[in-house]
Fold each of these.
Amino acid sequence: MHSNISPAPINHIAISVPDLEKGIQWYEEVMGFAVVRGPAELTSNDIQIGKILQNIFGTRFNRLRIVWMSSVNNIGIELFQFMEPEQLIENKQVEYWHGGVIHIAITEKNIESLLEKVTKNGGKQISSIWELDPKKHHKLAFCTDPFGNIIEIYSHSFEQFHANR
């Protein structure tokens, strides 16, 4: 299906972590993201944003901490630590049957090196490295951050992977 509408650019991705300082350190050191603002604490009784947060997260929401980061290609990454109520920490299989966001993906030519960095810094490699197109050396692998959030690693850009197949 063809359309005259241009694709909407991705502005940012929000990731929930149970420990904001550890999350900042991990995403800076392992993924190379840069802090552009924060960390900051946001509460439900904040005059400016409190009602918005309760509208989004529900009336049980009281307090969170947040930092704003940026990737090398200027995609925003928000790390959230929910304080009240506190975030549940569960190490479980991906429940893809529930729908919703499954993973984020980054591009790194040297997948092996990044996976080594991930595992040395508390993350986990959860798949083999798969070479999908040996002629073009297109590889991918899946890992998690230390909190269980899934990250896919592509060896080439999304367009290089999927165009003209």
Amino acid sequence: MSMKGPRHVMHLLDAADLSGPAKTVLNSCRFTDDKRYSKSVVVFGQGGRNRYAEDLVGRGMRVHLIEEGNSSRFGKIHTYIKNIAEIRRLIVEHRVDLVHAHGYKADILGYPAAKMTGRKIVTTQHGYIENSAKAVFYRRLAIAAAKRMDRVIAVSDGMKSLLMKYGVPAEKVVTIRNAIVSEDYAERERDLDLLERLHLTGRTPIIGCIGRISPEKGQRVLCDAFMEIRKRFPKACLVFVGKGPEMEELKCRYGGDGEAILFVGHQADVKPFVSVFDLHVLPSYTEGLPNVVLEAGCMGVVTVGTAVGGTPECIIDGVTGLLVRPGRVDELARAITLVLGDENLKDELERNVMDFVMKEFDFRKRVEKMLGLYDELLSDANGKG
């Protein structure tokens, strides 16, 4: 462990691009006072280029890339054992004081490595996908690991309730909500060049949906709702920003209608897209606390979302946006049409959401809460030592 100077926290994360959890880790490192904690990030890779690791290095952060590779089940177990040994080596060699894991893979690799070296370990539970037997298995792994951690950070009160429902001891769980660096998402003029490149000039309204294109995100429900919305707004356009396992199927089923529904793939920087949206929609079946709602809100774009997980904690129904039940095409279509068809309501929601996000979801305050938790854990460790 560090004997003098700032203590060292090592983040563990499985990421290849700038997902919500990846942004949280990046900004946590950005705003952690170097005099208080030094920090490093272990990123698990699958071979090939890892843009997230490159981004971290470009920002001057200390990064360790551990390649996992593709292998058979038994070969993967051997790889996991090697990775645990590598994390253990990094902890000892770099005098890490505390390990902070993000995601099930980081949890199951980080926990044994931390305990073998006598270090404290905290995990952040960002959310779960449970749309397949494999996904449920991974969620069970995450919960099994969480029960053994020294502390568990839930990104919303909704996530905290879910963790306790699954048997994680209440005394281990603390809510530290996701947050946003507001100056990174300052209100901006519409990106007219982007509108031209996407052939959207003159189309209105433009409805956006940002996120992984996967069954748990509910994009199919939004596509069906959009068919109803176009009866009221025939020039409306729906733009999906993101990639995922359902993208090709949705493109084949819904993407053949001229320029009405666009799939633009993953975008490292979503701000230009948010700038052209008249409304953002989040039709998910499950969420931790969606960063994208904060990003859109900080730019003055309202979200119509589903009342799941931590979403009601960042969308106040009728005040900063609208909430509907998940999976309800009719409710989603009505809510979207209501906002787009009432300019006074839309203006009021846009003003409210900017004020709300900037006041309640400041990232620097989140980091202070997180560092306070680190201090508490390390104080306990020193006291017992």
Amino acid sequence: MAGIATLLERRQAAVALRRALPRGAWPLFAARSPAHLATLLHRHCLDALVIGPAAARGSILDALRRDYPGMPLILYLPVRSDDAELLRRAHRERVAAVAVEGLDEPTLPRLLLRHSLTARRQADLLPLADRLDLTDDLQRRAWGLIVALAPRGLDTAALARQLQVRRETLSRKFSAGAAPSLKHAIDAVRLVAAAQLLGNPAYTVADAARLLGFSSVSLLQQTARRTFGVSAREVGTLDAARMAARLVSSGSRVRWR
């Protein structure tokens, strides 16, 4: 499961945030400094960052937008009358959302979920079910779980257990008609997650392979070539629309199998 990293200068804010999130919703990693935050970004697969006003006012926000432009940022701050310029800066720098300390804690889980990388991936991929010939109820339920859970790899036996069917039954029914095989559907979703990471200049292909649980960089490269016909680095330049076009085009169907 992807986590949430925080860089908050006030201990009260860190405690309030931790209490607001349901237990087990996300692993939460608290950075002690900008350098520690950079370490966390390269050590853990993250869904979003939560930063405080001090980070948003200075060069830290500039560095995050330069090096990790695709990472969702949530600004978490107490309400103060002199923060108007800070809020304008947050808007200019594409901060995804602002949460008010002491007021928005009940809605924080929904806010993080709505703006997370997982939510972006689901918004891009779930509507592709029809185009991928996933029309049966079991196919659609499996696709929903694959999109949500596959980025770091997904065991098909575990997926079958969640869907309460035998693995062989799931494999056969999922790939019926012109639909992809389970393996290639999982690979495609993992590559979309890789594209989300590689859209950030600070991440290398080796970083993406490690964070997403590929056993080697070469395996990620091979998966990208087999599924999308491009290198792993080029995957980072493909948006969801172009990935979908490659997956459903007649020339791509062979790669699904």
Amino acid sequence: MKKRIKYLDLIKFFAIYCVILGHLIQYIGADAWHNPIWKFIYSFHVPLFMIMSGYFFSSSLKLPFGDFINKKAIQLILPVLSWYVILCILNSCINSIINKEITLKYDLHGLLSSFWFLKSLFCSYVIVYISLKLIKNKLFACLLSCLVFCLTPLGGFAAINFLLPFFWVGFFFQKNRLNIENNMPLLWSISLVLFIVSLVFWNADYTIYKCPIELLSFKPLNFALDSFLVMLFRFFIGLVGSSFFILSIHFVQKKYDNSPLLDKLCIIGKQTLGVYLIQTIIFEVFFYALSLRFSSLFVNTLSPLLAFVILGLCLLVIKAIEKNRYAKLFLLGAMK
């Protein structure tokens, strides 16, 4: 059994914390789009998550296609379906109590839009698997699949056209990890400078939520150059931002390798799937129902602390779920 690389678990902890913090600001802030913390987080945190997912992809290539699909469906799709049912039930119950109109649709559209990141992750796994099985040249497989899914409407589902390139980045990161670590000071300096410069020009209008990737349309045939430039910039800032934090966290882990605190954070980093699912329920059900709105001063001061509280609550729910093997299978996708 391979020894786990600690700083990778630390990166996953940092990424899931950013997800919770970003969602918290979005649900309690008066204007999340112009919140500086929210804008900063949304420049890199989803790409960082996808890069880490791509890093662990290589072992999937050893599996036959049927076993691969079965494993990933149980790990990613089964929990999505299970939590979607719970989401619908909770939303209906709360709606009947407070008589508040809910945005969740109990149909195929609602199912496809809920927990969208995990669906994008599943599709990225399948796309990269098939690409590498059909095309032996890894770089060409990467470029061709990105071209197909980023430049055509095929990638519109679950923002595949946004996240697939970052999955590939993670795959190549794993292949070149030692070379990257050996040149860490130089790469860290470059990524820091480029990230800072990119942040100067970054704003919420460039996020996938306000500017989705719609490059080609066929009726009539048209290529959206403005959208293409935004896509390139969004990829660039996501790449350099993720690179900066990956290298920074690696440095911190090396310097404080024996820290009990870092060991605890690494443990949390192993629970990111469950945390993502549960925090989605917390925000889309309970925070949505409460409709809390606070001043920017309150949000920016207390949100970082409240995000840890929500993270702790998610871990408690995970601990309870893990006591039953069927709950663990259906809600966390864990077969063992």
